[in-house]
Specification:
By secondary structure, this protein is mainly alpha-helical. It is built from 21 helices and seven strands. The strands form two sheets. A five-stranded parallel sheet has the order 3-2-1-4-5, sandwiched between helices. It has a two-stranded antiparallel ribbon with strand order 6-7. A hairpin with a 2-residue loop joins strand 6 and strand 7. It is globular.
């Protein structure tokens, strides 16, 4: 009996998605890939993201050769019909998709048999068992992270964490070195474009010219891997040349060095080109060989085995209702300058710089995302669902499962604390301490009011005032809220913030 065809989604591109072990598809099974134009029509994606995903899919199809049937169609349903699937007796398999919409689609198609998810460290059933043991508690990443470390024997010396401590965050919060515009570390892996990239760019140009699709951002030379070979090269270069300096400057920002020592591996990980286990295992091997410090390795392992895995599991655990969470009742629409990535419209140097990085590359690291872009949305009371959609569309590593918990829970505190213990926002003092962005800015991080008032400092106090009652009950925010009583210029601050409205700060 011939093996059934396996449907490979565009974020399932690594070899582990075609591995027959652990319940995967049949060995040497024919492969179906569907490039659905409707996905690009429905959302105004970043142009570099559209290019990355289509390039990765077409590169994978080229690698699979005669084994794959690559269908370009308007929708997934059209693609299945064109490939001859539908009705009884003509079944295919598919690994568990990464979005609820895709899962709902495949589970309603009687011709598709859904296999377990790949590309993550834990089966969902194991997470649910862990979560059920913590029913009386709020789920917290730190406890989950320690459980995963033990479960997978990551950075463990017997029953104890390597180095005697689980969390080395205190060593990973250094500001950037004074007087340096860059970290002066080796550059990240840089892929070379080929004829497939040219073909994708030509198609995107044509579709946009014909009015079929619309994008934001710029599509310069491709910066992220689209093949397994490129992804492995990026991983090797990070571990060998950049991991050592990653930890201590993990939370720092430099205007002229947006990449710092970050790995840039989130995009190939989320395309399925890398498996998280191989990433953390290589990092641990580097530490045990004396090639990287423990704080950097622990920080990297925390990002992947901790935060990434936690976000994936919570996406399914919290359910679809989580999408509508809006505990702070923020309803303001995103302003046009933000939607259009119009960095030139912004005076605040930190925000202009971060927005320009997104415009030009579709990527920034986690601190600009959280403490500059997300903080602006939180302070100004933008609708969290719209903010989630923006991050999903505008980041090359953004998928529904990635952004929904990250934005609703972490960035916008829209779930009221189900995921994190406090809102993550700050005044200009934090940005000034952790970056070189404030010195050349027209605003002063210490000023709350007046011509040079920092929009983050003013916005921070406005946010606390707006949610004073709710935040007073939060033990991590109560002290900050009491600080409102010491502000003699609060009325002036609130008036100036109101007058700014949704104009670019």
């Amino acid at each position: 009996m011939a093996p059934r065809t396996h449907w490979l989604f565009g974020d399932q591109l690594g070899p582990h998605f075609l591995d027959p072990r652990h319940g995967g598809p049949d060995a040497h099974a024919p492969v179906l890939m569907i490039e659905a134009r409707s996905v690009l029509r429905r959302h105004r994606f970043h142009r570099a993201k559209a290019h990355l995903v289509l390039s990765a899919m077409r590169h994978r199809a080229a690698e699979l050769g005669d084994r794959v049937r690559y269908v370009q169609a308007e929708t997934y349903a059209d693609g299945l019909a064109e490939a001859g699937f539908g009705g009884r007796g003509n079944h295919l398999t598919a690994c568990h998709p990464t979005s609820r919409a895709a899962l709902d689609f495949v589970t309603t198609r009687e011709e598709v048999d859904v296999l377990p998810a790949r590309g993550f460290l834990l089966p969902q059933a194991e997470f649910e068992a862990w979560a059920n043991e913590h029913t009386g508690d709020r789920l917290r990443m730190e406890g989950f992270y320690r459980w995963v470390r033990r479960r997978h024997e990551l950075l463990m010396d017997g029953d104890e964490p390597a180095g005697g401590t689980w969390n080395l965050d205190h060593d990973n919060r250094e500001p950037p070195p004074r007087g340096c515009s860059t970290l002066e570390v080796p550059a990240p892996y840089s892929p070379a474009e080929d004829e497939i990239d040219d073909e994708v760019r030509h198609d995107l140009d044509r579709w946009e010219r014909d009015g079929e699709v619309s994008f934001v951002g710029r599509d310069g030379p491709r910066r992220f891997p689209v093949t397994r070979r490129e992804a492995l090269a990026a991983l090797r270069r990070f571990v060998s040349h950049r991991l050592g300096d990653f930890g201590r400057y993990e939370d720092a920002m430099l205007a002229d060095d947006p990449v710092m020592s970050h790995s840039l591996l989130s995009a190939p990980l989320n395309l399925g080109l890398l498996d998280p286990a191989e990433c953390v295992e290589r990092a641990e091997k580097a530490w045990r060989a004396g090639e990287a410090p423990l704080n950097s390795v622990e920080g990297f392992v925390r990002q992947i085995a901790g935060w990434r895995e936690y976000v994936w599991q919570l996406y399914w655990h919290f359910g679809e209702d989580y999408r509508g969470s809006n505990a702070l009742r923020h309803t303001a629409p995103l302003p046009d300058w933000f939607l259009d990535l119009d960095a030139e419209a912004v005076t605040a140097n930190c925000l202009s710089t971060a927005l320009a990085q997104v415009r030009d590359t579709g990527w920034t690291h986690h601190i600009p995302r959280l403490m500059v872009l997300g903080s602006r949305a939180l302070q100004d009371g933008w609708n969290p669902a719209a903010v989630t959609d923006w991050f999903h569309r505008c980041f090359v590593d953004g998928y529904d499962w990635v952004m929904l918990p990250n934005v609703v829970g972490m960035s916008q505190y829209a779930d009221g604390g189900r995921m994190t213990t406090k809102p993550y926002t700050s005044g200009g003092a934090y940005i000034n301490r952790m970056s070189d962005l404030c010195a050349p800015c027209a605003y002063r991080p210490t000023d709350r009011t007046g011509e040079h008032a920092c929009p983050y400092t003013a916005g921070y106090w406005t946010f606390l005032h707006r949610h004073r009652t709710a935040l007073s009950a939060n033990h991590r925010m109560a002290r900050a809220v009491k600080g409102l009583d010491r502000l003699k210029d609060l009325d002036e601050l609130l008036e100036e913030t109101s007058d700014r409205g949704d104009r670019a700060p």
